[in-house]
């Protein structure tokens, strides 16, 4: 983290740089989130003033207005918070967004001018910046990049910086960064997370079974990432041996055995060897069945079993073994429902419907998809957006026979979550900035 912050401070201090793009490797993404939390800390050497925005981007004008509304809520919360238990002195912020500023047709200028004003109001010392972190979710990356281009054109104060982030696997901002080399720069963390995780895994007593398992599991996952099947098998066997030896002391070690088989199954998916993946997943299911004999807490046992059988169901689906997939997804849904895991219960129902459709039984598919929608009723809308709910609507729009739910009810359910633009969201649900889960095998990972 110290290295990350050093790189950040060097980039932020560059003259003319307004927007910093953090371009991380997949295994560095957690450290990027940790970096944002680090900036929020009051007990660190960095004294930048960060504001983390979670607003979802739909269009340029909506986003600008929503950001300023979110900022106003944050300021109101700060000013009205109970400070009686604080050990440090804080002051109210005597500033609020001005929504009447002239923008001359630039949809981002209202936001930029207000943040320029806030940066000036804060009277920040040299080397200290107002840092806006946009954790934006969006469907169309080009339109969001257009909003950022308008921010550059609007003229950002030197004390005001915007952070955006993507990854090597999902580089949303390449063209935007190349187009504005003076005001947009890229920060690559280069943190060597494999080495860092090896050090974390080795923490503790080297004779402790948990430490030994952790080290072996890490080596196994590194073998998976590096496509080294020999190393993967070697350390998977070590993990299983350690877990099995410790079952007598603690029955919950069985969960670690299930985790290893899940990892091995996912590894074989990478080689497109679904037969072998199903064999590993079946081993996981068999271990989960043993858990029923060992674990007296039914809730925990069902959690283990649902996870293992959902994995195998997903692999059956990928292998087009539709009836076997349906049987497993039905069982997974039952166990997830019992353990109150409504998101995965809904996903199991969705995949049951998908498999019925693929096997040619549209009536059974409509029944399963309608059942899946029942899980949405008590779920917060901001949570629903990050599930495979739109996949359910998408399938019903294609095949609904109106025997179990009318088309009007389908439309209204989607509208209740996304508003009047619901159809656009459904059509684009597989291509968002945030990583919605459309592949059930990824759910298990």
Would you give an account of this structure?
There is one protein chain. This protein has 445 residues and is of the alpha/beta class. Helices cover 60% and strands 6% of the residues. It contains 20 helices and five strands. It has a five-stranded parallel β-sheet with strand order 2-3-4-1-5, sandwiched between helices. The radius of gyration is 25 Å and the shape is globular. 37% of the residues are buried. This is Tetratricopeptide repeat protein. InterPro entries: TPR-like_helical_dom_sf (IPR011990).
**Strand arrangement in the largest pleated sheet:** 2-3-4-1-5
> Which class best fits the helix and strand makeup?
alpha/beta
The mean pLDDT is 91
Major beta-sheet overview: 5 strands, parallel
According to DSSP, the number of beta strands is: 5
Q: What percentage of residues falls in helices of 4 or more residues?
A: 55-70%
Percent range for β-strand residues: 5-15%
Write the layout of secondary structure elements.
Blueprint: H1 2-12, E1 19-24, H2 29-40, E2 49-53, H3 60-80, H4 109-122, E3 130-134, H5 141-154, E4 160-167, H6 174-179, E5 184-187, H7 193-201, H8 209-225, H9 229-245, H10 254-270, H11 274-294, H12 298-318, H13 322-338, H14 342-359, H15 362-374, H16 381-384, H17 389-399, H18 407-418, H19 422-427, H20 440-444
Parallel strand pairs: 1-4, 1-5, 2-3, 3-4
Summarize the structure.
This protein is 60% helix and 6% strand. By secondary structure, it is of the alpha/beta class.
Descriptive labels:
445 residues, alpha/beta, five-stranded parallel beta sheet, 20 helices, 6% strand, disordered C terminus
